[in-house]
Write a structure and sequence with these properties.
single chain; mainly alpha; two-stranded antiparallel ribbon; 2 strands
């Protein structure tokens, strides 16, 4: 009987933990590649929770980097860089003004 209970417990743990996911963290080389882009502005990799806030305060999806463009060319270079990373990259780009979306539409979870 004890053996049967242990088997059920193992099965329960296996099934329960199979639904656990981890947040995707981009590899260091992806973040380093952003630092090599010739920009008039800059990327920030700190204080990301502030970029994850929106006007509605209902959603919070931190990015991995925030682009502070110095020119329109900075935006074009960044979008092109992410595009050239290919379809297997999970890095995304979202435009953000003053964060006046109510449900996180201007956020890029794990993106720029």
């Amino acid at each position: 009987m004890k053996q049967l209970v242990l088997q059920y417990l193992k099965l329960f743990l296996l099934l329960g933990l199979s639904g656990v996911t981890t947040e995707h963290v981009p590899k260091y080389d992806v973040l380093a590649s952003l630092g090599t882009l010739p920009l008039d502005g800059h990327f920030s990799f700190h204080d990301l929770p502030a970029a994850a806030r929106d006007f509605g305060n209902l959603s919070s999806f931190p990015p991995v980097a925030v682009l502070h463009p110095g020119s329109v060319a900075d935006i074009a270079r960044t979008v092109r860089h992410v595009f050239l990373m290919g379809e297997h990259s999970t890095l995304t780009v979202a435009a953000r003004g003053h964060g006046h979306s109510l449900y996180g539409q201007s956020q890029a979870a794990g993106g720029i």
